[in-house]
Amino acid sequence: MTLSTRLPQLTSLTQKRRRKRKKKKGRRKKKKRRKTKEKEKKKRRRKGTTITTTTTTTTTTRKRRRRKRMKKKEEKQKRKEQDQLEQERGGEEEEKKRKRNKKKNKMKMNKNKNKNKNKESKKNKKKKNNNNNKTKKNEEEEMNDNNNNKEKKKKKEKKKKKEEKEKKK
């Protein structure tokens, strides 16, 4: 024969306490629920509306919700209008910027054009000067040559004259 011994469940004090706490919490929740239901019923009685269930919404809640919705709608519209205004302002600013940039670019282009013109004019001047210098040099050389030639001729003539004089003597 076998003896079936049933061991008593060993529960620590902490476990017991936990269970008690859980039970209390449950009781508290039930009480709260009961209280809220009763409050709603009382409100309805005061207004004279029929009490059917606790889930139906009261007129005040409906009104409150409606007000909230309307507020949200108004805020949305305001935001939209602000966004539009900002976009328009932004557009105007962008146009101004574009115009400014156009002007700047034009100025830059003109500056570059002037620079190029100046460069070209300088080059031309240099060329002219070089040419002038060359021509001047050439002229001077020619003059010098002519002068030299003249002097040489004169010298030659003098020599000839001298020789003739000597011959005569």
Key words describing this protein structure:
single chain; 169 residues; mainly alpha; 86% helix
What's a quick, concise take on this entry?
86% of the residues lie in helices and 0% in strands. It has 169 residues and is mostly helical. The relative contact order is 0.02.
How would the blueprint of this fold be written?
Blueprint: H1 13-47, H2 59-168
Biased composition (Basic residues): 15-48, 61-71, 97-129, 151-162
Biased composition (Low complexity): 49-60
Biased composition (Basic and acidic residues): 72-96
Poorly predicted parts: none
Radius of gyration: 59 Å
Shape category: rod-shaped
Q: Average pLDDT, to the nearest integer?
A: 79
Q: What about the largest sheet?
A: none
Order of helices and strands: HH
Structural class: mainly alpha
Measure the end-to-end span.
191 Å
The percent range for strand residues is under 5%
Helix tally equals 2
Number of strands: 0
Helix content: over 70%
Provide an overview of this structure.
By secondary structure, the chain is mostly helical. It is 86% helix and 0% strand. It has 2 helices and no strands. It has helices at residues 13-47, 59-168. The termini are far apart. The model has no long low-confidence stretch (mean pLDDT 79). Residues 1-13 have a biased composition (Polar residues).
